[in-house]
Write the structure tokens for this entry.
Amino acid sequence: MILEKNYLEKLPKNQLLELAEFIVTENFKHHSSNGLPKNYKDDVNSIYKEELSFYENSEVFISKNHAGAILAAIRILKWNGVDVLPLQKIFGINPLSALSLPNVHKIYHIGRFAVKKELRDINLFKKLLLCAAKLICHHSSNVAFAECDSKLLRILRLLGVKALVIGESVNYLGSKTIPIAITYEGVIDFYTKNKSLVSKRDFYSY
């Protein structure tokens, strides 16, 4: 049994390396039957450096067990128009021209979304999504971009998040990864239906 706390925490900067290790190991556990590749530490270091550069403009929410180990995570970055997003680096997609949306208010990037494979908690999954949905729903012209595997995309749609595929898939961290966009219209129903799952404590940094 995995005992987790029932609220989300904001990850401090000095735990970003732990986050990177969690993201890489969980991705390969979910998507590869061959275990971790020998060079997986290269992926860990790459993610760590990227998240370190994003940290000042981002919010990283995690769930931990009572021993302090990360069980789930999500990072939401408010794009400053300068930082190179994974969307650009991996897919070559320009966020400013990816959608035909007039007068975009704020652009966010959702990343490092992972839940420990052994954990079966749909409400925790929804809580993590609500961290991003809350920001998108602050303004009807907000939009968020993300990269996700086909299984996660299917789950998002089953939960009522109307994610838009905006490019071809590539192989990344052991899985088929798809670039997506989520608009206010695409997530407002999910947010309205599920926002009672979170408390002010979950969103204390906002």
Summary: Helices lie at 16-31, 40-54, 86-91, 122-136, 150-158, 184-194. Residues 16-31 form the longest helix (16 residues). The mean pLDDT is 88.
